[in-house]
Amino acid sequence: MKVFKFGGASVKDAEGVKNVAAILHTYTQHPLIIVVSAMGKTTNALEKILSLYYANQNYLAEIDKLKKYHYDIMRELFLELHPVWKDIDDVFATLINELKKKRADDQQYDQVVSLGEVISTIIVHRYLLNQQLIAEWLDARNFIVTDSTYREGKIDWEATEEKMQQIPTILQRKKIILTQGFIGRSREGLTTTLGRDGSDFTAAIFASCLHAQSVTIWKDVPGVMNVDPKRVPDAAIVFDELPFKEAAEMTYYGASVIHPKTIKPLANKGIPLYVKNFDDPSLPGTKIHECKIDHLPPLIVFKDNQCLVSCKVTDYTFVSEDQMRSIFSTLSELNLRINVMQNSAISFSFCIDFRQDKIAALIKRLHEHFEVYYNTGLTLITVKNYDAKTFEKYHHMKGALMEQVSRSTLQVLVKL
Ligand code: ASP
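^ thats the input. predicted complex w/ aspartic acid below
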């Protein structure tokens, strides 16, 4: 069995959905599990609906916009009397209902934002059936068990693996299973999400629990590249293959081509991961697996929306290990991860992803012990395996606020 993952960009319009069906037609000899994300920018739109609702602004107009976006796609795929219209109306009714429930913010976020994947999989499933692709629609929440960390559900692997035992029997009946990325269910019975862009991880969870032959992530790029071609078009090359370790490090530094949690479950089971282009499936793409490559070219990763926080001691003592421990435990309690850090005699600075909802709480807590300064709107550039040319280009950049060089990696935090 193979696992395929189609992201939001691959199903952003009716042409995209048709293309998914066309790709699947060429793989009919294998049992397939297809993981699909919300269409286009639906998840962002659902986040916006939530914030408008909280701000007492016109969220209904935004819901209508999102409905129209999906209706436009459906109009190109289905006749007027097709049952899909009622299915989708029902999901939008659930959305309005969920908004009105009194819940903690993160819990409500998951009940609302998860519906993007429910909508997209209903549409794609109905379309596949119309195309004689006999697929079963599965609710991923019945299989992926998480704890109650809403917005960042942690997988209960044992419980998930147990639930997935039913899947091989379903695959004997239907050759294709279609399910949602990004979502699971907590033990208390509520929907959870696995973190933004988490659908790749969903594909890896299914593959790992079911010992799949491989996972393929279908993307709008020809494979994994050494740099985002939109940023540095003249330096971009596609890797034919990459070791798991290298791919994992790339995602750690912020390469958005694969979600950071995807590699580990696959590497642990030795399941290869292919990144292929959905516009031209004949391209070879990149194979990520256990292999050794002697000379990798410089790999450049841009991570935007970074925030640099500096904690300065106030009483002319030096920064102590105890003070650092208190900073680390505050970060850990707020579920914030340091991307790069540096200390001097009287201050400790670190760079984190900027999260509007967390930054105020962080500053307040740190302020109890330190003078705190922060800058937002920064980009963290990481050059792994740098050579003379890339070192020259990114070292001492104008607007740099922090720079670190190790034997193989250069990192620069910069206001671009
Ligand atoms: N739809 C979710 C997001 O946009 C998950 C995903 O696309 O992987 O974050």
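The pocket of aspartic acid is lined by residues 7-8, 37-38, 43, 116, 181-182, 196-199 (CB under 6 Å).
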